[in-house]
Amino acid sequence: MHPFESHIRNVPDFPKAGIIFKDITPLLQDRLSEVVAAMCADIDWNEVDYVVGIEARGFVLGAAMAQLKGKGFIPMRKKGKLPPPVIAETYTLEYGTDTLEMIQNQKPGRVVLVDDVLATGGTLRAGMKLCEKNKLEVKALALLINLTFLNKFKEDGLPVKSVLNY
Fold first, then answer.
1. How many domains does the chain contain in total?
2. What does the pLDDT read at residue 155?
3. pLDDT tens per residue across span 29-67
4. 132 with 138: CB under 8 angstroms?
5. Is 17 exposed, middle or buried (CB count within 10 Å of its CB: 0-12, 13-18, 19+)?
6. 12 part of a folded domain
7. Cis amide bond preceding 15, omega within 30
8. How much is the pLDDT for 157?
9. What pLDDT sits at residue 153?
10. Catalytic positions, written as ranges
11. Residue 23 CA to chain centroid, in angstroms?
């Protein structure tokens, strides 16, 4: 068992029946600097210009990673939260659709795309598409938790770097 696992709280039937939610709040409260260092491991930072964090926990983790590695940070937000000009990517969730937005980028760059948990992958795939539309090449996907039984990211050969795998 990874030492971080004892700091993750399992919440049954949240946000709906049958789901066991992995609450990382206690882990971030007790061991944030160690989490950030672990998420930065195994990434070739010479190939990265910026860190892109997906709202909201991806902001916390991604900004801390950018700070640690001396890189810029770019927020990826839910629809309507950023001033124009923005570009958007709409994606399907198990219960509807959602949209991610970024401020329109003027220069190409290489990025690490960060989020807290990879479940089915809809949000992360939309984030990757949005980066590509915005002249940003995704060099790595950095995640705290990968629920591997719910997605095929590694099987698809995508550059997933996750600290904890379930």
1. 1
2. 78
3. 999 999 999 999 999 999 999 999 999 999 999 999 999
4. yes
5. exposed
6. no
7. yes
8. 84
9. 86
10. 57, 94
11. 15
Q: Tell me which residue range forms the domain holding 152.
A: 42-165
Handedness of CA 112, 102, 116, 13 (dihedral sign): negative
Q: Would you call 153 helix, strand, or coil by DSSP?
A: coil
Residue 144: CATH number of its domain: 3.40.50.2020
Environment class of 52 (CB within 10 Å of its CB; exposed 0-12, middle 13-18, buried 19+) = buried
- Looking at 13-159, which runs of residues are DSSP E strands? 20-23, 50-54, 72-78, 86-93, 96-103, 109-118, 136-146
* β-sheet bridge partners, residue 146: 118, 165
Give how far Cα 71 sits from Cα of 35, 76, 126, 162, Å: 18, 16, 23, 20
Tens of pLDDT, residue by residue over 75-134, are: 999 999 999 999 999 998 877 899 999 999 988 999 999 999 999 899 999 999 999 999
